[in-house]
Amino acid sequence: MNLMSRREEAVYLTKTTGILPAMKLKQATDMLPYAQAMYDGGARVIEITMTTPGVLENFRAISAAFGDRLYLAAGTCLDAASALDAIQAGARILVSPAVVPEVIDVANRYRVACYSGAFTATEVFTVMRLGADMVKIFPAALGGPAYMTNLKMVFPEVNLIPSGGINLQTAGEFIRCGACAVSGMRNFFDAEQVAQHGVGWITRQTQKYLQLVAEARDNLPPLP
Questions:
Q1: What is the pTM of this model?
Q2: 34/77 Cα distance (integer angstroms)
Q3: What is the share, in percent, of the chain residues with pLDDT greater than 90?
């Protein structure tokens, strides 16, 4: 019997898979096939940005199709109103690209997970104190993999998810340097690649990142 709350399970699934694939589109589209492709590749938590037209309808459709098998994260949550809309549509994780206290407050009030954006040590400490479950370091490419180690040295208990500039060449190193998962959009979902190769491209990309994370975890160095 699963004794974890849904909030705890969201964090657990993100950490065990080690990936948070994200999607963002410029026009309203049925995203259920893309969610299915990520699920088939091994993802158990996926993010769709709130800036995507029709995002709430997609949350409802994907939630109805998958239930507890796939957790939905609402990305780019910038205010309390959109955060509440996302929860009511089926999102179980709120994700922000920056420090947005009211989004963390909504997550705490409705007992859903919150992956707050941050970059500096001060920002990381701020969102940890406000109650964020995980911290999405954005843009991660600016600091590089070693920056994860710097943050873990002073905040050993923090759950870091680097996003922005992660690719197949750097994902493993981010994990080895202290990240518990990696995230991104174009590395998991590229509309041009999907148009050319079909949704199977999404599944294969998801599998590649899962494998890179697993390989990196098999060879984790001790952190300073």
A1: 0.95
A2: 21
A3: 94
